[in-house]
Specification:
The protein is an alpha/beta fold and 382 residues long. 37% of the residues lie in helices and 8% in strands. It has a six-stranded parallel sheet with strand order 1-6-5-2-3-4, sandwiched between helices.
Length: 382
């Protein structure tokens, strides 16, 4: 899914969510010829009836109002804050990103595509009645809600952004048809200070919310061990009809807004794992979204180009040199030097959970906390 107009989702020159990350990602996708290897579509802006699948009518009206007159934003509804400054066209740009994710979900459900990617999406913090954490409309939740509206009975959402996927969890807190799984930095040290293992779903959906909270400083081995120690078993048990995943690139060790130490190569390994899990447990139906990521030259474009390539069954060898044309584009747009290869030079490895665990290890403690909180509620062995 791509429309150049998504780059109008722009909070201003001093904001960390620079839309150049989207333009550079699409530029790298094109430099590798991936746009010629798969269909590129542009979805329409989500209309009010679609937005109301998740968002309150008064909130949508408030976004429209500040979109027309940004100077009127006073912080109510989370609009006009440091995180979410108001800007002209805010509603249109936000609704377009939401519409892209919804259109991708529709294409998957109707059998027009097995996989779809909207790397401009993944705006997982927006709540039904307010903006939060750089997110105005929650395209991820809207895509899931649209799948349910179309008749899906089981949708799994897996979020590997460094921040807790709180808005999606909130949208489906009491809905057993949706399994939300979030792997993130521990809420003690990072926004939004939610995503504790004990958050397991509402009274009608106990065990449908899953949170793996990892200590600051977690690197490749621990991150991958935690993912594989929880996610595959849950998806095998839940048997989703569609897998929706969010791939915020802000877990990276170069990201300026968080404290994990994950490499591009580990991010790629999780993207591959999600692809495999979709085929194993969701009949291949996979919607992949972007998310956070504030190392806008060195990390985000490479990470999400790998995601597009994997979804398009055209995976890029990590050792591949980056085309000179894209490196020139980077310099022209940002006056920064671009990375030379599609790798950080790491070889992702992790010890298998089934081989045993160390109760004194902080990563294993995090995994155990999640398994003990959720697995019994689902009738699974911890």
């Amino acid at each position: 899914m791509w429309d150049e107009a998504v780059t109008k989702y722009d909070f201003g020159p001093s904001h960390p969510m620079d839309p150049v990350r989207l333009a550079l990602t699409m530029g790298l996708v094109r430099a590798f010829g991936l746009d010629r290897a798969m269909e590129v579509r542009a979805g329409r802006q989500a209309g009010d009836s679609t937005l109301r699948l998740v968002h309150r009518e008064d909130y949508v009206a408030a976004v429209r109002a500040v979109s027309a007159d940004p100077g009127a934003a006073d912080g109510s509804y989370g609009l006009g804050t440091t995180d979410d400054p108001a800007f002209h066209g805010m509603h249109e740009a936000s609704a377009l990103i939401a519409g892209q994710s919804v259109a991708a979900a529709e294409a998957i459900w109707r059998g027009e595509a097995d996989h779809a990617v909207n790397f401009a999406g993944g705006l997982h913090h927006a709540m039904p009645g307010g903006a939060a954490g750089f997110c105005v409309y929650n395209d991820a939740a809207l895509a899931v809600a649209r799948l349910l509206e179309l008749g899906a009975e089981r949708v799994a959402y897996v979020d590997v952004d460094v921040h807790h996927g709180d808005g999606v969890q909130a949208a489906f807190w009491n809905d057993p048809r949706v399994l939300t799984v979030s792997l993130h930095e521990h809420p003690r040290t990072l926004f939004p200070q939610t995503g504790w293992p004990e958050e397991t779903g509402g009274p009608a959906a106990e065990g449908s919310a899953v949170n793996i909270a990892l200590p600051a400083g977690t690197g490749d081995e621990g991150w991958l061990r935690a993912f594989h120690g929880v996610v595959p078993e849950l998806l095998a048990d839940f048997r989703p009809q569609v897998l929706v995943t969010q791939h915020g690139a802000d877990t990276h060790f170069e990201d300026p807004l968080a404290h994990l130490a994950v490499s591009l190569d580990a991010q790629r390994a999780v993207q591959e794992a999600c692809h495999e899990l979709a085929h194993a447990h969701a009949d291949g139906r996979w919607l992949a979204l972007g998310g956070g990521g504030y190392a806008v030259v060195d990390v985000v474009p490479r990470s999400w180009t790998h995601l597009v390539a994997i979804a398009g069954h055209k995976p890029i060898d990590p050792e591949t040199a980056i085309p000179a044309s894209w490196r020139d584009e980077v310099y022209a747009r940002t006056r920064q030097l671009a990375p030379a290869r599609m790798t950080d030079g790491r070889v992702p490895q992790w010890p298998d959970w089934d081989a045993g665990y160390d109760p004194a290890d902080r990563i294993d403690q995090a995994v155990l906390a999640t398994r003990r909180a959720v697995f019994p509620l689902r009738g699974m062995l911890t």
